[in-house]
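Format notes (please read before filing issues)

Several people have asked whether sequences and structure tokens are stored in separate files. They are not. Every record keeps both together, in the order shown below: the sequence lines, then the token lines. Line labels are part of the format and must not be stripped during preprocessing.
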Amino acid sequence: MFLLKINRYCLLTKYKKLKVLRNGFGYGTLGLIGRESDIRGALRKYIEYGSFPEVALSDQKKEILLTYFEDVITKDLLRRFKIKKAQDLRAIVKYYLSNIAAPFTFKSIERPLDMSITSVKSYTGYLEKAYLVFLLKRFSFKVKEQEKSPRKIYAIDTGLCNAVGFRFSENYGRLTENVVFAALRRKQSLNPEMELFYWKDAQHHEVDFVIKDRLEVRSLIQVCWNMRDEKTKKRELRSLQKAMKELKINKAMIITEDAEGEEKLNGFVVKTIPLWKWLLTEEGVISA
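Then the structure lines:
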């Protein structure tokens, strides 16, 4: 399935006025002054309805998303893998799309779904092969620890999560985390040496994304939609500081709705950046 990056989304929709302008310095600037609210408006649509081109251009967004979902279930899963229990397949898909960015084990969802662990593992493998969902392992230098730890689940498209799973309209944090994962996954597809993980210690401090390139941890990314609450800010910074210390890396990033700045913590540096700016930077539209 072809999915739009945020820049292409803006070009195809009514936000096309935000397109990149060429100047003497090449592609490095958007006419951003006074347009941040327009960009945030485009981003909210992008998060809520996803990034399928036909969905972006239509007023019948949910209907198209449900049609896509039925096509994936029928053609990419039931027929391809000769699955007989369609009801079980739909149950596990809805469970995953309703629990994006949440940790789980196959055993933990065995009882709620009324399936054997073998069936849960088989169906999950089919969903991964169809690129409907992706599993993220917990970071550890020991492969055995990675394999036995809970995974986190992400979906190919946040629009599908809202159309098929429980609506996340009031919880942009989990949707935003999925959008960040999708951007990182796209980057990973171009770099076979890149690996993605999440990090969590015994005290339950957690970092959403660990980016590893070959043998080295290159960066840490935390996603926090709302950083206005001081307790939330302290919690996110504390988790990053713990991870930076353990993984021996001195810089990290927090992706937010609109906060921007830099925090220095005992020799560690944490950069805060709005999601829209991070996405456009990753796409090479604007410079960091």
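For reference, the curators noted about this record: The radius of gyration is 20 Å. The CA atoms of residues 133 and 155 lie 4 Å apart.
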